[in-house]
Amino acid sequence: MSQEFNKGAVRACQLRVAAVTPFTSIDYPGKLSAVVFVRGCPWRCVYCHNPWMQARAPQPGDESWERVERLLARRQGLLDAVVFSGGEPCVDPALSCAIDAVKSRGMLVGLHTGGAYPRHLREIIDRLDWVGLDVKAVPGDEAHFQRVLQVASGSEAFLESYEIIRSSGVAFEARSTVHPALFSIEQVLETAKWLAEHGTQTFALQIYRKAPGLETGLDPVTGDWPGEAVEKELQSLFKNFILRRN
Ligand code: SF4
After folding, report:
1. Atom of ligand 1 nearest to the CA of 149
2. ω before 87 within 30° of 0 (cis)?
3. CA–CA separation, 137 vs 158, rounded Å?
4. Atom 5, ligand 1: which residue's CA is nearest?
5. What is the distance between the alpha carbons of residues 130 and 221, in angstroms, rounded to a whole number?
6. Is the pLDDT of residue 62 over 70?
7. Ligand 1 center to residue 237 CA distance, Å?
8. Ligand 1 pocket test, candidate residues 36, 45, 90, 218, most atoms within 8 A of CB
9. Is residue 65 left, alpha or beta, with left meaning phi > 0 and alpha meaning psi from -120 to 50?
10. Domain residue spans of the chain
């Protein structure tokens, strides 16, 4: 991955766009945004809702950056922001140019990332207005990362990315998708405490939900797991705590 980001300018039209959501009010806090789903991801999360976006190679039916540009031109003045999501948007060397293209329209730029590419993240962090950072497992616990990501490593990249985001001062939300088969209650609390101790102000606990027609091997989460007592403890740790059940 490393050398790709030092080759100089990459034209924004080379961004591999798997899909686009033209208008949403839930992907960038308090703003109306479009979401650009970038193709490619090095991880294979057990619960991934977008497995068809994991491959880097373009697929039939993919969108294009040109269509995104046309959409932004039409929605100028109506859209506040563009969120780059995925997949893992930092996999794409053209992300930087796409960010510049959005900025040149006076729109805010949001990023959804799991932190897999800290080196690329470092290059773009100063141009981001908001980050949604997926915390896939207990920070620093490589075995837990491997269990959730189903790849050989991920913990180290996450830790480096976390520090880049935290120290940059950019507004961010840390979020963990949890299921009792992947996270014990102790691991939920350990994750939250680590984040609180390391400067996270906004944390969202996302209870796994089964996507229709997608087999992940995980049963739907029933009842109020992880329970009211855990919820209260999490609330006490953060300035903003959000529980998402769907
Ligand atoms: S990081 Fe996101 S896109 Fe990649 S495998 Fe995990 S859930 Fe899927």
Report:
1. 6
2. yes
3. 10
4. 44
5. 30
6. yes
7. 27
8. 45
9. alpha
10. 2-244
Mean pLDDT of the chain, nearest integer: 93
The pLDDT of residue 210 is 87
pLDDT class of 213 with cuts at 50, 70, 90: confident
Selection from 2, 1, 3, 5 nearest residue 97 by Cα: 5
CA of 45 to the centre of ligand 1 (A): 5
- What is the reported pLDDT for 120? 97
Residues whose CB is less than 8 angstroms from the CB of residue 106 and which lie 6 or more positions away in sequence, other chains included:
none
Neighbouring-strand partners of residue 112: 132
Taking CA atoms only, the protein residue closest to ligand 1 atom 6 is 45
Cα 149 to averaged position of ligand 1 atoms, centre (Å): 8
Does the Cβ of 216 fall within 6 Å of ligand 1?
A: no
Q: Which helix (H) or strand (E) holds 244?
A: strand 240-244
- Cα separation, 58 vs 65, in Å, equals 13
3-state class (DSSP) for residue 109? strand
CB 48 near ligand 1, within 6 Å? yes
Superfamily of domain 2-244: Aldolase class I (3.20.20.70)
Does the pTM surpass 0.90? The reply is yes
Q: 100 is written with which tokens?
A: 């510049």
> What are the backbone angles phi and psi of residue 203, rounded to the nearest 5°?
-130, 130
State how far the Cα of 88 lies from the Cα of 151, in Å rounded to an integer: 15
Radius of gyration of the chain (CA): 18
